[in-house]
């Protein structure tokens, strides 16, 4: 039950995953008889279990859904049919206005497919339509139409940081801001309810908070696929990027399919609003083709073809010019907002990901109507520590005999985010010091992705260890994860990678080996509170923007 806009329709829909093994296996004569009953008079089903039969099944099942709907009294029904990686499974989706009747139609369609095997197709279609017609309509969708402006943020990496930055910009302007995310529901920076609210319920919870003047919603892949988006529209959308993560789940096997899912968010941006797109990511930029809204791209390259193309279409662009975050409009001189070195989140430009997040947040803030001065001040005052951006590239100094080591805590969870973490680690390492990395993986990632994490981590660091995440094994064993991560490390010549039962144990072991000037990075998901408590217990302190700037300069020589 998809309660709101989704991968298939811009409104609530039913998604059926159907086993078509029976239809694929029956004789050509039986398949033709089925086709005739649903109005496909000239169909050519092809031989059993052939590619032609699968194509026939896609067409026939879509026609079956329409036939049942028509015979049950519906005037017309939009239907989407898609293949999956399994040739005997297909996905069918159709919009709904009445829950109970729409669910019954799904069951009825499945029963007709079963009847193909017995040859009782004529009776089955009529019986299915009668069942649907006799079913009580049931309640309507719960999709909300927002009464306050909404900024919706999606993407693979950077969603949470970008959402937090946008909320901070709006609060700098004095607005009461509600924000939903993977961490919980926040109002004006205060946690109202903990939990993962990146699905449709999060948007509803935020809009229900009294006094909220602006809503910022973090929208994850899983929520779009399993529940739909909880709002009929947004005023500004942001797509940070599309990189490999969660592939192989819920029928999403490729980056192109993942981009299609993320593209639902800008697709429902109102026509008077703005869709803020990463111009350096071709899959994100391609979402322009589906927009009703006006395009606003961000790019680290002011000469990017994406910037030129969007400006030619009357859009906007936020980019870097001479080290300044600048906004460009058609037929106008660039507007320099703030120097990159004065945006603490970018670590003096060291963190390319956070440079992009800052560009995206500035674009969204201006697009939603925040004053220029508030956007500039918000970028200047949003700090990279736990106070503003907990768990995302938080950097500490932890005492060691004779000096201090740098410790970076980050929610890195895929290849791109791990590369971003190691990039920052390298940028903070003085000459002659070492990089020590605590690896970890969530169990529902593919074997290939987990192995790649081991390879990336081992190649980029001098010392590597594994810190397990018992809360996120998700069907795997610790031994399986160790084997995959070690296989990746061994592919780049690193053997004997130790493993520790928790993230805290891993951090303690790495810091225990660290010398003054060394940089320790930890991929942290399961034990964020425990990790921060351990750092505090060992007299670690959050690096201020000034301290970070000095570390970057020292590392650069």
Q: How is this structure best summarized?
A:
Residues 391-523 form the Mur ligase C-terminal domain. The chain has 557 residues and is α/β, with parallel strands linked by helices.
Helix content: 40-55%
| Helix count, DSSP H or I runs of 4 or more residues | 21
- Overall pLDDT score: 90
> Mind telling me the C-alpha Rg?
26 Å
**What coarse outline follows from CA principal-axis ratios?**
globular
Q: According to CATH, what is the class of the largest domain?
A: Alpha Beta
- Spatial sequence of strands, sheet with the most strands: 7-6-5-8-4-9-10-11-12-13-14
Q: Characterize the biggest β-sheet.
A: 11 strands, mixed
Q: Total strand count, please?
A: 21
Q: Which spans have pLDDT < 50 for at least 5 consecutive residues?
A: none
What is the third-level CATH name, the topology of the largest domain? UDP-N-acetylmuramoyl-L-alanine:D-glutamate ligase
Strand portion: 15-25%
State the end-to-end CA separation: 57 Å
CATH architecture label of the largest domain: 3-Layer(aba) Sandwich
GO molecular function: acid-amino acid ligase activity; ATP binding
Protein name: Mur ligase
Keywords: Ligase
InterPro entries: Mur-like_cat_sf, Mur_ligase_C, Mur_ligase_C_dom_sf, Mur_ligase_cen
């Amino acid at each position: 039950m998809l309660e709101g806009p989704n991968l298939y329709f811009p409104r609530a829909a039913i998604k059926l995953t159907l086993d078509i093994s029976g239809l694929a296996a029956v004789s050509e004569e039986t398949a033709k008889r089925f086709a005739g009953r649903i109005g496909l008079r000239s169909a050519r089903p092809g031989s059993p279990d052939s590619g032609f039969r699968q194509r026939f099944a896609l067409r026939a099942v879509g026609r079956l859904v329409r036939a049942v709907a028509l015979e049950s009294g519906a005037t017309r029904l939009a239907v989407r049919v898609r293949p999956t990686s399994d040739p005997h499974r297909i996905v069918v989706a159709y919009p709904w206005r009445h829950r109970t009747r729409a669910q019954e139609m799904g069951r009825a369609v499945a029963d007709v497919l079963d009847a193909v095997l017995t040859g009782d197709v004529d009776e089955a279609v009529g019986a299915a339509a009668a069942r649907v017609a006799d079913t009580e309509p049931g309640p309507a969708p719960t999709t909300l139409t927002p009464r306050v402006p909404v900024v919706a943020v999606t993407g693979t990496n950077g969603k949470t940081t970008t959402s937090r930055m946008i909320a901070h910009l709006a609060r700098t302007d004095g607005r009461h801001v509600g924000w939903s995310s993977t961490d919980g529901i926040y109002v004006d920076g205060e946690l109202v309810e903990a939990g993962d609210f990146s699905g449709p319920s999060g948007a509803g919870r935020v809009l229900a908070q009294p006094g909220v003047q602006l809503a910022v919603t973090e929208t994850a892949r899983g929520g779009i696929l399993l529940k739909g988006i909880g709002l009929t529209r947004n005023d500004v959308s942001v797509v940070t990027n599309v990189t490999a993560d969660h592939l192989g789940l819920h029928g999403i096997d490729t980056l192109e399919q993942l981009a299609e899912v993320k593209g639902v968010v800008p697709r429902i941006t109102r026509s008077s609003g703005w869709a803020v797109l990463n111009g350096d990511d071709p899959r994100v930029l391609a979402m322009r083709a589906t927009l009703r809204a006006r395009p606003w791209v961000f790019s680290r390259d002011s000469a990017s073809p994406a910037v030129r193309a969007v400006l030619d279409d009357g859009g906007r662009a936020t980019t870097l010019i001479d080290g300044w975050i600048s906004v460009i409009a058609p037929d106008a001189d660039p507007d320099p907002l703030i120097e990159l070195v004065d945006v603490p989140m970018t670590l003096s430009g060291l963190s390319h990901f956070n440079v992009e997040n800052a560009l995206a947040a500035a674009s969204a803030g201006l697009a939603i109507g925040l004053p220029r001065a508030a956007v500039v001040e918000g970028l200047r005052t949003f700090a990279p520590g736990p106070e503003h951006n907990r768990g995302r590239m938080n950097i500490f100094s932890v005492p060691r005999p004779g000096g201090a080591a740098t410790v970076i805590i980050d929610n890195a969870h895929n290849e791109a985010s791990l590369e971003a973490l190691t990039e920052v680690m390298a940028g903070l390492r003085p000459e002659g010091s070492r990089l020590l990395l605590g690896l970890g993986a969530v169990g529902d990632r593919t074997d290939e992705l987990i192995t790649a994490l081991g390879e990336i981590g081992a190649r980029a660091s001098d010392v590597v260890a594994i810190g397990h995440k018992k809360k996120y094994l998700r069907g795997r064993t610790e031994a399986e994860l160790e084997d995959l991560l070690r296989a990746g490390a061994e592919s780049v010549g690193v053997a004997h990678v130790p493993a520790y039962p928790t993230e805290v144990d891993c951090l303690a072991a790495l810091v225990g080996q660290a010398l003054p000037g060394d940089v320790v990075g930890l991929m942290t998901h399961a034990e964020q509170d425990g990790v921060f408590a351990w750092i505090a217990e060992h007299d670690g302190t959050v690096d201020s923007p000034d301290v970070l700037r000095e570390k970057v300069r020292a590392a650069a020589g």
